[in-house]
Amino acid sequence: MASNQLWDVIVVGAGSAGLPLAIRAAERGARVLQIEADYRVGGTLFWSSGQISAAGTRLQKQQGIEDSPDEHYRDAQKIAHGKIDPVVLRLMVDNAAATIDWLMDLGFQPAPGTPVAGEAHEAYSTRRYLWGTNKAVSILDTLKPVHDRLVKEGRIDLRLQHRLVGLLSDARGAVTGVRASTPNGEFEFSGRNVVLASGGYAANPELWAELTPNAPLCSYVNPYSRGDGLVAARELGAPVDGSENFLATFAGVLDDPKDPRSGAFLALSPGSRKIWEIFVDTQGKRFMQEDHPSIDYRERALLRQPGTRMNIVFDHGILQNAATITLDPTDVYRAKFGKHHAFVKARTLDELARKLGVPAPALRKTVADYNRAVDRQQDAQWGKAFLIRRIEKAPFYAIKAQGITVLSPAGLKVDAQLRVLGAKSRPIPNLYAAGEVLGFSRTSGNAFVGGLSLTPALTFGKLLGEKLLKW
Ligand SMILES: Cc1cc2nc3c(=O)[nH]c(=O)nc-3n(C[C@H](O)[C@H](O)[C@H](O)COP(=O)(O)OP(=O)(O)OC[C@H]3O[C@@H](n4cnc5c(N)ncnc54)[C@H](O)[C@@H]3O)c2cc1C
Questions:
Q1: What is the pLDDT of residue 23?
Q2: Interhelix angle for 454-467 vs 18-27, to 10°?
Q3: Sign of CA dihedral 128, 133, 136, 137
Q4: Is 457 in the pocket of ligand 1 (CB under 6 A)?
Q5: What does the alpha-carbon distance between residue 398 and residue 277 come to, in Å, rounded to a whole number?
Q6: How far apart are CA 128 and CA 323, in angstroms?
Q7: End-to-end CA, the chain
Q8: Beta-bridge partners for 263
Q9: Under 8 Å CB-to-CB from 235, ≥6 apart: which residues?
Q10: How far is ligand 1, taken at its centre, from the CA of residue 52, in Å?
Q11: Would the CB of 224 count as within 6 Å of ligand 1?
Q12: Distance between CA 203 and CA 7 in Å, rounded?
């Protein structure tokens, strides 16, 4: 069924990029249709840690921090090994401060002590990294009342449970609208401009296997991150690239071995929990300094392991004494050993090796070498600093851990006006994109640069809302 109305802007998705986009476009008098597959707005804001970064914010100035977009640009490329799309990064650093100032005008409150230089990722050279007190929900709580009001006033026509299934286009390939599937059937909507703000694809194992064949999927993401925007743009000839920059976060377990979307994090950051255990590869050998202070070092060491997998090996003494290794503050996880595929328990090291599928002599030698390092208080092989206890008291334990995906690396290529590029890098007329649909690789390169997924999503959404009709 087709609607007769012609919208100025059709926004696909009402998450981190889609909310600011619809708000700013509606505030400028545009006729906005927003289709959202979920039954609610918010998207990945319900999942995300909400860490954002910008140079030249009012908050920085209030705290006497001197910073500039050029320094943000330089720092980001340095951390990301020069792999961020230069056009996209330039647009982002030049406009991110205005986004954060705007959020603060709307009532967003940065957590006490922020901005900082680094937290969970490699540090910037200055304090430009911040978050709210309730992760990304603080951002949602800021945007939603404004969005709700505009919906109520009829300035945003929000259609929930409307899933984009295809883009409409004319004979010259210009986008003219969208096709959406709803509980009441399929509908077509016409628009002068369509913006894909439909997020990543890490909740779609089939598409993941196709777009990111080099990387296993173990994800913790919004279940609506199914890559529909990518598929729709691809049908119009837009290439999808960036999978070579896949990087998994360090690290966790697959809760349900049959569901690659059931990733669950472990507490493995030496800054917040001492690392009592050793990490062992498929050959039964250690492969990294377990408590190396650089997250980039740890992530890359894991990335080199087949399937980004490792075994976290320890003994009963460590289980009893160390702080919990799961993010659950209770110690319920201890009951899982021997009963859950990822939590392994054995009476001897040889039995543990057999259950992990690693060579027993190698594991025995690894543990013996490590125990000698503990005795000497020096780990000559890998330089682990925290050498608190030998691994010697049965039962022995292991956690089958692996990298966790929170971001989709591949995405759509855009120009400096966020127009989606099609065949031969020509813009597809009337089609724009913002957010993770661009791919993590385009906004953050091959490293997790602080805030460089959520900040560009918010910033590009806001920017398109403000500039789309002018552009
Ligand atoms: C656990 C976790 C922690 C993170 N922490 C950080 C962090 O601290 N800092 C950072 O920079 N980044 C972080 N990220 C990444 C960042 O939050 C996301 O990249 C960003 O929020 C994505 O915004 P988006 O608007 O592109 O997608 P989303 O916010 O997911 O919005 C997309 C919307 O589109 C809807 N949609 C999907 N398909 C369709 C369709 N076919 N039709 C209509 N609607 C559709 C979805 O339901 C959703 O509402 C984190 C991600 C996760 C999962």
A1: 98
A2: 20
A3: negative
A4: yes
A5: 9
A6: 31
A7: 30
A8: 254
A9: 166, 167
A10: 14
A11: yes
A12: 30
pLDDT of residue 333: 81
Is 405 touching ligand 1 by the criterion CB < 6 Å? no
**Positive or negative, the Cα torsion across 348, 354, 356, 360?**
positive
pLDDT level of residue 65 (50, 70, 90 thresholds) = very high
Distance 105 CA to ligand 1 centre (A): 23
Cα distance between residue 132 and residue 118, in whole Å: 15
pLDDT at residue 3, as a whole number: 72
**pLDDT > 80? residue 247:** yes
Q: Structure tokens of 281?
A: 């590869």
Angle at CA 131, nearest 5°, toward 272 and 419?
125
**What are the structural domains, with CATH classification, of the chain?**
2-242+409-467 (3.50.50.60), 249-404 (3.90.700.10)
pLDDT in tens, 379-423: 999 999 999 999 999 999 999 999 999 999 999 999 999 999 999
In this structure, the chain runs to a length of: 471
Cα–chain center distance at 450: 11
CB-based contacts of 44, cutoff 8 Å, min separation 6: 15, 16, 136, 199, 221, 222, 225, 436
- To the nearest 10°, report the CA torsion of 16, 21, 24, 25: -160
pLDDT tens per residue, range 111-123: 999 999 987 788 9
228 in contact with ligand 1, CB cutoff 6 A: yes
pLDDT (0 to 100) of residue 334: 85
Alpha carbons 256 and 205: distance in angstroms, whole number: 14
Closest approach atom of ligand 1 to CA 17: 25
Query: Of all atoms in ligand 1, which is nearest to the CA of residue 461?
Result: 25
Q: How far is CA 399 from the centre of its chain?
A: 24
Q: What is the mean pLDDT of residues 132-158?
A: 98
